[in-house]
Design goal:
The complex is a heterotrimer of chains A (248), B (225) and C (671). By secondary structure, chain A is of the alpha+beta class. Chain A is 34% helix and 12% strand. In chain A, strands 2-1-5-3-4 form a five-stranded mixed beta sheet. A two-stranded antiparallel ribbon of chain A has the order 6-7. Among the domains of chain C are: 271-429, no CATH class; 505-636, Fumarate reductase/succinate dehydrogenase flavoprotein-like, C-terminal domain (Methane Monooxygenase Hydroxylase, Chain G, domain 1, Up-down Bundle). The chains are: A alpha+beta (248), B mainly alpha (225), C alpha+beta (671). Chain A: InterPro entries: 2Fe-2S_ferredoxin-like_sf (IPR036010), 2Fe2S_fd_BS (IPR006058), 4Fe4S_Fe-S-bd (IPR017896), Beta-grasp_dom_sf (IPR012675), Helical_ferredxn (IPR009051), SDH/FRD_Iron-Sulfur (IPR050573), Succ_DH/fum_Rdtase_Fe-S (IPR004489), Succ_DH/fum_Rdtase_N (IPR025192).
């Protein structure tokens, strides 16, 4: 199929960017979206133009590196997939596809479609861990039974790949789904209880500091999340935050 | 707790709590208004009680005014801050793919309700305050002293079709606002999804029935007088 | 006497590690504060090592090319992690895990290292659970296990199909704690481009800031390389697009020997290639082989009919199907080790029985599993005379619970529903057992330079068993390196801060900038990918699942010629001082073009078949094992460690003889 691409081009973090039109031809419907981008870049290199910079790595939907806003949706029109898993069969011959970086004040553009998601890391530094030393004589893994239900729910929260689609999709650029998922994973496990109060307070404080917007419960994040992280995690974080503040 | 209401989540709670309070008030307001359809007398009695009972006037009324103001002002502040969280807007954004119109436009439905409230205050509240506290007439009686004035004043307001139209429109916006606002308030308060599912249906019903009821009252009086 | 000293401590195997740890030199806490360690790569090995070293008190700097340590490719490991916990009571033990790993590696790994690995495996699970890793549990709240290829016990712990992700996030969380304490300084979007040696010791690295293009100098008392494997030398692999051998190769060029480069794991259950545009291959967890049966049609007519779309695989009756793994290996069936399963698939496809248009695919069928589970469920739920549809429905629900995310992934990529029609799979390059040579302390042949995880060669011999990579990465990072590095660093307490304004740093930086300048100024006519794809094709065709002397010799010549052409005609757009993905790739492919040649040379030298390395000249000619790989223990029971001498083709071979005291060398039989 033949396509018109409207792509955000921006030289570096300081420059102003703009949308630029490109044409690609003979795209197979079995290609992944990023393979289509490879075709475009090969074409640009061969004509002496600078290829489009975009983040990508594992190309199997787990590393969370790829981050394109395609036709007005994070990771494009398909559900439950990252950009690298989006296939061209979702598009039709002659389509015009708009491709933009994930946009949020807290995710500054570094170049073209590449953004800096360091804010997510800093939120994790603020409390995304359980303080346990690597002694080699930690208690036995089966010493504390954990109900299957809690373990499965913790796993569902922990599935977050930190791609930032939630922030990109949210009309307020809120990071609450990401933070909610991390808080929830630990809140659901007995191991996480000891530091629960400080964890949620510190992570929320860092989230606020990074300049993310506030959640207004539109639910866009949940729909666009490639891993189906549930809004329930935000509700749980709210509860945790309230109880942490009541406890002092 | 000091930093709580300065934090993003603390403000969510504040918005949710003020919303829950306002929704409760709305229910009460509706309950009294609907009386006007069935029994002018009952309506008059209830209105007089609300308008003169000290606890309502000096305790609940200020709380209500604070609640309304807080909800609006905080709503604006949050909207302003949320807009700041995205400096460069998307060239193409397909919000309809992942969220409801209501949820994305709370600020607009809210503004419409605010506009209505201004009209409503001019229509009812300011005259009330004027009569009761400036003129000092706490009797609640008509000028000729024949019975209560509340029902008369109510029906009088719904004569003008333009005003009725504005009211009807405002209630449509109220419905849209509640459509998202009801469940949103519970989500913000951290209510778990199990309970939320049950609340969801109730919320939808509330968001439709209450505004529809108000519309019915307005039209009823418009066409019956 | 070889120049290689493995430094394996004396004493009985079972107490070696404990005794050694008890006598190792320690660094006192006050002195640790004055010692810097650089860790390159933040996957399971690098991440866990960085966190543990920082926890001990060393000042750690981490480097990764991704935008966050959490994205390292360990994250893509699906199936699980082995540990000798014996929670299932099926007779597992440290010895058994050790034995399985050595046997699975076709007796080409170092006995003492593997025993240590098996010994600390149980600690890893304890540690990860304490960190909040949500492993799968049963209804009693205890940890669940599954079984993997090549073993007869259930010792694999898992977190859905995302075990690697969860373990990496665990290691990353441990890093976060240390970053918050200021003990780790993370350098994300940074790539190490050379190691700096001062007086024969590794003293720092030269790194490029991938956002600004700035070249930076970082010094340390020890450098740890944990940069993963070199599978991308094949262009198409299950590795991440950015996975590269640059760090490992640069240290090789600075004196670290490179061991067994020809040992590559070709994983049997990957989604087949669909066209020339393909940029990478996707793995489907080996755990699928627990329930999936692998087959191709028995008759060529059916193969043709399927390829032309005239028949569907479900049209074929049981006796028209060739379940070739069950036929050839009745004892292990579909759960033979990876190398065996891959070669068997290749054998069938080479014989013309491949079931897709490219002729490179076999079926992985869940129909029997769905039926089996369905009947089981019908019994559990007391459904008498359940209909076939009901049985299917019940069975599919169980399969979905076990493999749902994998099935969904398959459907997204291939656009076929694997619940209804068998999956198509084909082997793909997945893991490299070879890597930088290290001694028992995980130190390379350069003092103060360590190598851990997939980047080193040590534990998997010629073939890695499923769910062992995660185990090794975390064992190295959490429980081995943090002890053994102390032995070296205890002599560094008087060294003081290492300056970066020395001639050694000047020289290393110049080398790096010269290379970058060359690339951005070389106005050639071909993109980097053009060369990478060509290299990949040579590697796959001649150094792939089976190899022969003629092909390997050709490969060496072709790779060398390709490298020369690359330096003449490669085109790298953009500038050096900006975010430039093509420039990054150019440097990595340049290194692959050297490594590939050494790979072929090593494969040529090893005239035996062992593990992932199958030499067509070395097969069993008769008997029960006819046609199977033939190992030659008399002549090849050694590690090939290559010393760099200016050109990959001129590398000098050093042999580390492998001694097996606890295990008798036997032919690996899975029949």
């Amino acid at each position: 199929m033949n396509l018109t691409l409207k792509i955000w081009r921006q030289k570096d973090a300081q420059s102003k960017g703009k949308m630029v039109d490109y044409k690609v031809t003979e795209i197979s419907e079995h290609m992944s979206f990023l393979e289509m981008m490879d075709v475009l870049n090969e074409q640009l290199i061969n004509t002496g133009e600078e290829p489009v910079a975009f983040d990508h790595d594992c190309r199997e939907g787990i590393c969370g590196m790829c981050s394109m806003y395609i036709n007005g949706e994070a990771h494009g029109p398909d559900r439950g997939v990252t950009t690298c898993q989006l296939h061209m069969r979702m598009f039709k011959d002659g389509d015009t596809i708009t491709i933009e970086p994930f946009r949020a004040k807290a995710f500054p553009v570094l170049k073209d479609l590449v953004v800096d998601r360091g804010a997510f890391d800093r939120i994790q530094h603020a409390g995304g861990y359980i303080s346990v030393n690597t002694s080699g004589n930690t208690q036995d893994a089966n010493a504390i039974p954990i109900s299957k239900h809690a373990a499965d729910e913790a796993m569902d929260a922990a599935t977050c790949i930190g791609c930032g689609a939630c922030v990109a999709s949210c009309k307020n650029s809120s990071a609450m789904l990401f933070v909610g998922a991390k808080v929830s994973q630990y809140a659901l496990l007995p191991q996480g209880q000891v530091e629960a109060t400080d964890r949620v307070k510190n992570m929320v404080a860092q989230m606020d500091l990074e300049g993310f917007g506030n959640c207004t419960n539109t639910g866009a994040c949940e729909v666009e999340c490639p891993k189906g992280i549930s809004l329930e995690n935000i509700a749980r974080m709210n509860r945790e935050f309230l109880s942490a503040n009541i406890k002092g | 707790m000091s930093g709580f209401f300065k934090s993003s989540i603390g403000r969510k709670y504040a918005m949710a709590l003020s919303a829950l309070f306002l929704m409760f008030f709305l229910l009460q307001h509706f309950a009294i208004n609907i009386l006007s359809v069935f029994s002018p007398n009952a309506f008059n009695e209830a209105s007089h009680f609300m308008g003169t009972f000290w606890a309502v006037q000096y305790l609940l009324q200020p709380v209500l005014i604070f609640g309304v103001m807080y909800h609006f002002i905080m709503g604006f502040i949050l909207e302003f801050k949320n807009r700041q969280a995205r400096v460069v807007k998307y060239a193409k954004n397909n919000g309809a793919a992942n969220s409801s119109w209501m949820s994305r436009n709370m600020i607009y439905s809210g503004l419409a309700i605010l506009g209505f409230l201004v009209l409503h205050f001019i229509d009812f509240w300011l005259p009330e305050i004027n009569t009761k506290y400036i003129q000092g007439d706490m009797s609640g009686l008509l000028a000729d002293g024949e019975g209560f004035r509340y029902y008369e004043e109510l029906t009088h307001k719904f004569v003008n079709p333009l005003r009725v139209g504005a009211y009807v429109l405002a209630f449509v916006f109220l419905s849209l606002h509640l459509m998202h606002g009801f469940s949103s308030a519970f989500q913000s308060s951290g209510v778990s999804s199990m309970r939320k599912q049950k609340l969801q249906a109730f919320g939808k019903a509330y968001a439709i029935i209450i505004p529809l009821g108000f519309i019915f009252i307005a039209l009823f009086h418009h066409f019956n007088h | 006497m070889s120049v290689l000293d493995s430094k394996v401590p004396k004493g009985p195997l079972k107490t070696k590690w404990t005794d050694y740890k008890n006598h190792i030199d320690l660094v006192n806490p006050a002195n640790k504060r004055n010692i810097d360690v650089i860790v390159v790569g933040t996957g399971l090995a690098g991440g866990s090592a960085a966190a543990t070293l920082a926890e001990l008190g060393y000042n750690v700097k981490t480097f990764c090319y991704q935008d966050s340590p959490r994205r390292a490719h360990s994250i893509a490991a699906q199936g699980g992690i082995n540990a000798a916990k014996n929670y299932q009571g099926d007779g597992d033990s440290t010895y058994r895990l050790f034995y399985d790993t050595v046997k699975g590696g076709d007796y080409r790994s170092r006995e003492a290292n593997v025993y240590r690995l098996a010994e600390v495996s149980a600690n890893i699970i304890d540690q990860c659970v304490a960190q909040g890793v949500p492993f799968a549990r049963d209804y009693g709240g205890l940890l669940d296990n599954r079984s993997f290829g090549g073993v007869l016990v259930s010792r694999t712990f898992y977190a859905k199909g995302q075990t690697g992700q969860q373990l990496l996030l665990g290691a990353y969380s441990a890093m976060n704690r240390q970053i918050a304490r200021g003990k780790i300084t993370p350098f994300n979007r940074h790539e190490m481009l050379d190691v700096v040696k001062v007086d024969g010791k590794a003293r720092g690295i030269i790194a490029r800031n991938l956002v600004t293009g700035e070249i930076e100098r970082h010094s340390a008392h020890a450098v740890v390389i944990a940069s993963g494997g070199y599978g991308n030398v094949y262009f198409l692999s299950t590795n991440a697009m950015g996975s590269n051998a640059t760090a490992a190769w640069k240290i090789h060029k600075k004196g670290a020997f490179f061991a067994n480069p020809c040992y590559t794991q070709i994983h049997p259950t990957c989604i087949p290639r669909s066209g020339d545009y393909q940029s990478k291959l996707t793995l489907m967890s080996e755990s699928l082989r627990n329930d999936g049966r692998i087959w191709v049609p028995k008759n060529m007519d059916d193969v043709m009919a399927i390829r032309e779309g005239k028949k569907k695989p479900t049209d074929l009756s049981e006796d028209e199907r060739d379940y070739y793994l069950e036929r050839r290996y009745p004892a292990f069936g579909n759960l033979v080790p990876r190398d065996v399963a891959s070669r068997a698939a290749k054998e069938r496809c080479d014989a013309g029985y491949g079931v897709n248009a490219t002729g490179e695919a076999v079926y992985l069928d869940f129909a029997s599993a769905i039926e089996r589970y369905g009947k089981e469920q019908a019994k559990i739920h007391n459904i008498a005379n359940a209909s076939a549809d009901k049985i299917y429905e019940l069975g599919a629900a169980i399969v979905k619970a076990k493999y749902g995310n994998l099935f969904q992934m398959y459907e997204k990529i291939v656009d076929q529903d694997p619940y209804k029609t068998p999956m198509m799979i084909y082997p793909a390059v997945h893991y490299t057992m070879g890597g930088v040579w290290v001694d028992y302390n995980l130190m390379t042949t350069v003092d103060g330079l360590y190598c851990i995880g997939e980047a080193n060669f040590s534990d998997h011999g010629a073939n890695r068993l499923g769910a062992s990579a995660l185990m090794q990465g975390l064992a190295d990072g959490y429980f081995v390196l943090p002890y053994t590095i102390g032995d070296y660093l205890s002599h560094e307490i008087r060294t003081g801060k290492i300056p970066t304004d020395t001639p050694e740093f000047d020289a290393a930086e110049k080398e790096v900038t010269d290379k970058i300048d060359f690339f951005v100024n070389n106005k050639g006519s071909h993109s980097v990918d053009y060369y990478h794809k060509k290299l990949g094709k040579i590697m796959w065709d001649k150094c792939g699942m089976s190899r022969n002397a003629k092909g390997l010799k050709e490969a060496m010549v072709e790779i060398k010629a390709l490298r020369e052409d690359f330096y003449k005609n490669v085109s790298v757009p953009g500038a050096a001082n900006e975010l430039n993905a093509e420039l990054e790739k150019a440097g990595r492919v340049a290194d692959f073009l050297e490594l590939g040649e050494l790979f072929a040379k090593d494969a040529l030298e090893r005239e035996e078949s062992c593990g992932g390395h199958f030499r067509e000249e070395s097969v069993e000619l008769d008997g029960e094992q006819e046609g199977e790989a033939k190992r030659n223990d008399k002549e090849f029971a050694f590690v090939s460690a290559w010393e760099y001498k200016g050109e990959p083709g001129d590398a000098v071979l050093h042999k580390e003889e492998l001694e097996f005291k606890e295990i008798e060398l036997k032919q690996r039989s899975y029949k």
